[in-house]
Each structure stands twice: as C-alpha cells, then as structure tokens.
Amino acid sequence: MHNILDKCKFSVIIMKTIHRRRINTNKKDIKKVVLAYSGGLDTSIIIPWLKENYNNCEVIAVSGNVGQNDELEGLEEKAIKTGASKLYILDLQEEYVNEYIIPTMKAGAKYEEYLLGTSHARPCIAKGLVEIAYKEHADAIAHGCTGKGNDQVRFELAIKHFAPNMPIIAPWREWNIKSRDEEIDYAEAHGIPLRISRETNYSKDKNLWHLSHEGLDLEDAGNEPQYEKNGFLEMGVSPIDAPDKPEYIELEFNQGVPCKLNGEILSPKEIILKLNEFGGKNGIGLLDIVENRLVGMKCRGVYETPGGTILYKAHEYLESVCLDKMTLHKKQELSITFGELVYNGMWFTPLREALSAFVDKTQETVTGKVRMKLYKGNIIKAGVWSPYSLYSEELATFGESDYNQKDAEGFINLYGLPIKIESVVKEKNNGKCGYSLFHEK
Description:
Layout: H1 7-20, E1 32-36, H2 41-53, E2 58-65, H3 75-81, E3 86-91, H4 93-106, H5 121-135, E4 140-142, H6 151-162, E5 168-169, H7 180-189, E6 203-206, E7 211-214, E8 247-254, E9 257-261, E10 264-265, H8 268-281, E11 286-292, E12 298-304, H9 306-322, H10 325-343, H11 350-362, E13 368-375, E14 378-385, H12 393-396, H13 407-415, H14 417-428, H15 434-437
Parallel strand pairs: 1-2, 1-4, 2-3, 4-5
Antiparallel strand pairs: 6-7, 7-12, 8-9, 8-13, 9-10, 11-12, 13-14
Helix pairs in contact: 2-7, 5-6, 8-9, 10-11
C-alpha cells in the first residue's frame, strides 16, 4: 500500500479527526494500536507485550518498505503468529528516494561523515504509520526505539507533525527489560522465532541506502570492525577483498538529480541500486564512526553506504565546476545545519523546508557528467563536463592567455587597502606594527 491519501486529502482528514476527538491516553481506553514493525528483535516481542500490558488490545503491524526487501520475507506470517491482527507493508521506496534521499544529497548534508541512512528513513516511515493509524481508527501508535537512541525522537516528532494528539507508546520507556539479552529471554519464553542468536545480535538497520551495525564487539571503541569476517558486511566487501583492477563509471545529473548511469536513463532509485552494486564489489562506502547522539552520549557504529558514497562524491565533483565561490561556500556551511536537522528528527520543520528551497535554487545549473574510478575502497575523480561549467581552461592555463596579469596589482592594492590603513594608523600612534616590528633594537 502506498500513497493511501494524497497530501491535501491526508491533511484535511487528519485535522478533522483531531478536532472530532482527542484520544485518551489511559491504558484502559487503548483498544487498538498501530505498531511500527520490522520483524526484528524489538518489535517481535512488542506485539505480545502490548497485548499483555494494554488489555489485550488489537495490534496492527505496519512495515515501511524502504528497500530492506529480503527482511520482508515471511513478515506477515510472523506478525500474525506473534499476535498481530494484520500486517500492512507500505511500499515507500520511490517516496523515500525522491522526497528524502535526493533532497538531502543535493544539500550535501552529512552528520559527522554519516550519510543519514537511518535518519531520513524514519520520517518517511512515520508518515505512513499515521496514515494507517487514521485509516484504522487506532487509539495509539507504538514503536520499538530505545530510550537511549535517536530514532525515538525521529519517529515521534514526525508523528506529532501529522497527528499532534495521537498517544505514542514506547515500550522501552515502560518495561523492565534492560538489555537485548533479556529481550531474547522474553522471546524464547513466548515462543517467538528470531533470525539472530546471542552471538550475532548486532543492532542493525537496513534500507536501499545503507546498513548500520551497532552493539556487541563494536561497543568497545578499541576493537577493529570485522570487515573480512564472513557475514559481517552485507552490502559489499572489504577493500582488501575488492578486485585488483579499477572500474570506471559515468554518472549524469540534471539540476542536481541523478538521471543517467553509464549512458543509460534510469530513475534515481534505479541509479542508487546499481551504484550499490558497483560500490559494494569495490569495497566503497564503509564508515566506522563514534558519533554524538542527540540524547547526549557518544555511540560507535559501522555503516555501509556503497552507492550513496559514490553519489555524494559525484555530485560534489559536478558542483565544484558549476557553482560560483560564494554560493558553494554558503551551501557547504548550511549543509551542516541541514544534516543536523535530519539527524535530530526535524525533517518536517520550516527551517528544513526553507533550506531545501535554497538548495533547489543552487541546483539550477548543476547539470552535467562526471567520470569516477572505483578501486579498493577509493573513489578517484576521472573527469567532469557541464554546459554550465564556470571553469575556464583558457583563463586558468599556465600557458599564454588573454588574462592581463598586470590587473592583479590594482586588485591587490584595493583588496589590501584596509590592512595598509590600519598599519599606518598604528604606526602614527606609536603602535608596533608593520615596518617598525622589523626594526626594534
């Protein structure tokens, strides 16, 4: 199910529902709950927990398909067996790419090198949750995010945007379970099948943009990630295991949006998926980072973003010839703010929308082609072309050109005039500056 309601109709129905009834937050009045469901450890045990602790309420599981396709296999059967009345699988892939990934990529937004794979998926999924909650006349929305992480903020701010009066249930902030080991104990006691063991119990998040790994040996910042261990990496290989021969690709953009790969016209989603293949087999897009979480603590994670890393690099390469200096520098400055907004769950805010409008304006001339060489984890620039290129070989050459080098003298005199005047004034007032500094006894 996708785009159940168009945006205008969706907003009208939400506002009418809000004014018609304010949902009671008392447990006894919660009869039906919509749960953000992935089938992972957290959400698998939440279904029976909700029924045990919320008066045997009906639980409707909702999974947003943002490209984690293999993880959706058998999901409906598992959800119903563990107590859900039904499962919705929302195909959000195109929406996720076009309305979240591409705007963030065009902004050049990162958070401490992290390419925001989990961050911009959450508001997309949360919007779908609210749609189903209103369709099903649910009394609350639940999620499996921990009280330590960023995702609880991302989900809940998006829910508050679309449904400000909707109660939100966060079991990790209520139950007595203290660890993933205790979650496994609960699952085993309730006969809930799991795809993981205590030894492979990494906390992971996967979509078409990235895969994150947290927990277990990675919690010790002194441990090297096991990139060469079979089964650790899922979207690619270690640079050590990548081919010994480089691979060239050509990527084309139209106003900042990727539109062709190796001469073939493709949608942005198709390009990302193919770049994942190119990047994955060449060991590209691995990031090991200790990041500063919104809630205040530092956390260590390993990310795989093979296609996204190539896309960011190619886009930045094209911008380097298409944008004037002041626009490029201001855009780079604002990309930090954009990245922080996305990371902190503030996608649906006036500032993020305003920054996106600025970014779209800057992208009007970001059209052209780049060639990249991929080799053992490296992305090497191999050529850039654009009809809007501001780079002039005739001006920049060390050979003969029409550039009058004598013009630089007047420019330097005017550019340095404030410095010269300041030095003269200090000299006049017996200050130590300029010439006098070199003639002290």
